[in-house]
């Protein structure tokens, strides 16, 4: 019986060994694929530039007091955190504006998967950033995390209005110069038209009239015609 049992176990072990090798190969391939994908995603350029406001806040928060230099006041930390939230508002607006257009381009094949991966990573980063800001705000004051982004949104709107006003003021001088040149051009064109209107009547009056010759001829005809000679004859007869 032993030889037959050994053959049966050997026969059964071959499929199990095949399955074990297949599952192990798939696991190794999946692990390598995930590592390569993660490495590729990490090597992609970030969607946003470095978060300067966040770095400033973290530097102030973790700054250790030195002799002669007191600890950073909470008011300064709150102001830095509010500036950080304001920058987050700008990034949220950019994410929302770009998502729909990027999805359409991705469906059409106009952009590659690398760009979509960058965008998805930026979405995850901004979600983590918002949670971190809310936690930091609640650490300073209870329930401040619920209103900090409202205040940050107002600050972002005011900043946008100031930038827009500065842009308009910067173009005011150039527009004023353009209008002055335009007025000078209109004035010169108007003066040329007036000069032309003044010259035209003078030219008309200086031209000789075509009726002068015919009137003179009529006078000559009247003075030298038969009627005139007949009148002279009557006068002579009267004298006799």
Summarize the structure.
By secondary structure, the chain is mainly alpha-helical. Helices cover 84% and strands 0% of the residues.
Could you walk me through the main structural features you see in this protein, from its secondary elements to its overall organization?
Residues 191-240 are annotated as: Disordered. One of its GO terms (biological process) is post-translational protein targeting to membrane, translocation. Residues 191-201 have a biased composition (Basic and acidic residues). Keywords: Membrane, Transmembrane, Transmembrane helix. The chain is mostly helical. It has a domain at 30-148. It has 7 helices and no strands. It has helices spanning 2-43, 52-61, 74-108, 113-140, 148-206, 212-224, 226-239. 5% of the residues are buried. Mean pLDDT is 77; it is low at 210-240.
């Amino acid at each position: 019986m032993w030889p037959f049992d050994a053959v049966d176990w050997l026969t059964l072990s071959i499929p199990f060994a095949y399955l074990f090798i297949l599952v192990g190969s798939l696991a190794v391939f999946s692990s390598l694929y995930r590592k390569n994908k993660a490495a590729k995603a990490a090597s992609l350029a970030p969607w946003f530039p470095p978060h300067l406001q966040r770095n400033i806040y973290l530097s102030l928060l973790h700054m250790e007091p030195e002799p002669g230099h007191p600890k950073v006041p909470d008011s300064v930390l709150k102001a830095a955190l509010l500036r950080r939230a304001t920058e987050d508002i700008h990034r949220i607006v950019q994410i929302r504006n770009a998502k729909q257009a990027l999805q359409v381009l991705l469906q059409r094949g106009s952009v590659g998967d690398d760009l979509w991966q960058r965008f998805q990573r930026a979405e995850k980063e901004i979600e983590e950033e918002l949670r971190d800001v809310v936690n930091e705000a609640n650490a300073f004051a209870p329930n401040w995390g619920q209103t900090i982004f409202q205040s940050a949104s107002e600050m972002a709107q005011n900043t946008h209005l100031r930038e827009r006003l500065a842009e308009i003021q910067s173009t005011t001088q150039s527009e004023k110069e353009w209008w002055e040149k335009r007025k000078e051009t209109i004035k010169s064109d108007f003066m040329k038209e007036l000069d032309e209107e003044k010259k035209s009547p003078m030219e008309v009056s200086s031209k000789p009239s075509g009726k002068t010759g015919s009137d003179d001829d009529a006078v000559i005809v009247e003075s030298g015609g038969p009627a005139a000679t007949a009148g002279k004859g009557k006068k002579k007869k009267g004298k006799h």
